[in-house]
Automatic annotation (TrEMBL):
The keyword Membrane applies. One of its GO terms (molecular function) is GTP binding. The chain crosses the membrane at residues 15-34. Keywords: Endoplasmic reticulum, GTP-binding, Membrane, Nucleotide-binding, Receptor, Transmembrane, Transmembrane helix. It comes from Lotharella globosa. Belongs to the SRP receptor beta subunit family. This is Signal recognition particle receptor subunit beta. It is found in: Endoplasmic reticulum membrane. It is a single-pass membrane protein. Its main location: endoplasmic reticulum. One of its GO terms (cellular component) is endoplasmic reticulum membrane.
Amino acid sequence: MLVSIVQAIIPSLDYTSALAVVVLAIVLLAMVAFKALQQGGVVSPSSGNTVLIVGPMGSGKTALFYRLVLGEGSKLPKTVTSQAPNAEEFSPCEEKSSKKLQLVDLPGHDSQWPAAMERTSDAAGIIFLMDSSKPQTTVAGQKLFDLLCDPGLKKRKIPFLVACNKSEEEGAKSLDDIQDDLHADLQDRTEFKDTIEDTEGNTIVKKMTEDDESDFKFEELPCPIKFTTVSLKKGDIAPIEKFCQELLR
């Protein structure tokens, strides 16, 4: 039918030439549509468009999820420890922006961790939330180590933001102390040479970097990682909002 329409518009074209025009038009339309989806959707296709909120139980992940999705000034629902992921599309930029990210809040319980790790393949960025008043360094260190050793995240150089919540509480640890404690924990895990099985059943050593013999530095990891303090109670999550906005650039 399309070929007949082209021949009616350009009578001089034979069937083969008209068919070539139709095919070319379809290809061009497909390219335009794909480009439009990319511009309206966000990040590079190789990085996915999902922001994962992960971390130990009780750090405020679900409260952060609703704060980002509902926006500043919205009444947040009462939250409890999540038993399943929460997912919602949201725009970290101005209200009228068509650029959106998929936000996923993953449960912090250890039993849910293997399933959480399976969600990393579509990650554009990872928000690792901790409780400054109760950092749970050992638990946090294990989860952060698993993520920083993930081959897919390392290959795509997915950015991390370690956000220390409840920084306003009395007795909360300083950002420097939390960063130092995490560094020590991760260094111990590196020297212990924890292992996993790959998809073919081979035992491989978990590595954050290719050279795990010497002391690592956060700034030298394949995945760029930043540390910041936030306070959901006070509504101070500007560093997290900025992190999400930068994923759209």
